[in-house]
Design goal:
Blueprint (H helix, E strand, L loop, with lengths): L2 H14 E6 L4 H5 L5 H10 L1 E7 L5 E8 L2 H18 L2 E8 L3 H13 L5 E6 L2 H7 L4 E7 L1
Parallel strand pairs: 4-5
Antiparallel strand pairs: 1-2, 1-6, 2-3, 4-6
Helix pairs in contact: 4-5
């Protein structure tokens, strides 16, 4: 296999792989240069929790913003993933987290109750991702066929 073929396969895989997550606070995203001081200020005052998508170029895009308790954002994450399951053929999904066992169990049970043939697994976020996302990140990674 040539380097060109390998590069094409990697680019194809990147286009099919999606990652979405909810940070608990935006302080760490601000420190890493991924959000502005104004976004940090208003999100902390208004209790806004964004649902973020990791774009193929490595930047973050906002899918939706939720105001209030973290449970609103978790419900929004679930609605988003249900929409993805109904729209695309997804065979494997990883629920990634750090110290969010209750929310992971809730998401896993809800996804399995839908009846789709998707293999749902859980994993803890590593130290590098936790350093950039802050405490209690909750996300889902999946690959679309």
């Amino acid at each position: 296999m040539s380097f060109k073929d390998l590069g094409d396969r990697v680019r194809s895989l990147i286009k099919k792989t999606h990652g979405i997550f909810i940070p608990d606070i935006l302080d760490y995203l601000y420190r890493g240069g991924r959000c502005s001081a104004i976004e940090l200020f208003f999100s902390s005052i208004l209790k806004i929790r964004p649902l973020l998508k990791i774009l193929p170029d490595g930047t973050l895009g906002v899918i939706q913003k939720f105001r209030g308790a973290r449970s609103h954002a978790v419900s929004g994450l679930l609605r988003y993933i249900i929409n993805q399951l109904n729209s695309y053929q997804i065979t494997q999904m990883f629920i990634m987290h750090l110290n969010c066992e209750d929310e992971v169990t809730y998401l896993m049970n809800e996804v399995k109750a839908l009846g789709h043939t998707v293999d749902v697994r859980t994993a803890q976020v590593g130290c590098v991702l936790a350093r950039h996302s802050g405490p209690r990140p909750l996300g889902i990674a999946y690959c679309v066929k």
